[in-house]
Design brief:
The protein has two domains: about 70 residues; about 60 residues, OB fold (Dihydrolipoamide Acetyltransferase, E2P) (Beta Barrel), CATH 2.40.50.140. Strand 2 and strand 3 form a beta hairpin. It is of the alpha+beta class.
Length: about 150
Amino acid sequence: MDIIHTPLQLWILAFFVLILFEMGTPGLFYFLSFACGALGAGVLAWLGCSLTIQLYIFLSGSIVALGILRKWVKRLPKDSERESNVYALIGKKALVTKEIVPHKTGQVKILGQLWVAQGKMDNHFKVGNVVVIKHVTGVRLIVEKID
């Protein structure tokens, strides 16, 4: 049983297979570039252009798409530059809800959540003080007085 009868069917199949490969390898965009080339070649096959022209468009379209995607990806912030998860709390203000004494933990409330907190050095914070988060160690926030 022959599935592919025309070049158009070949390019459509190639497009979908390449998209599936891209979904299996997130972040690379190589297969997406080739899928764009296959899409361009498929349009030319639908218009009745020769197989040679379709192959040229597939290759050149893939190269152009790779260049565009590469330029776009370079503009995205790197993972280390993104504030995410608990590290997004650094620099934010929190309210002390349980006294923080030197060398012991207390508790702060930030963004509606309660967190275990510890002061830097020999800082002492009373309930109601507003502090700033300077560092995160595991699930413990290290806080300081606001300057």
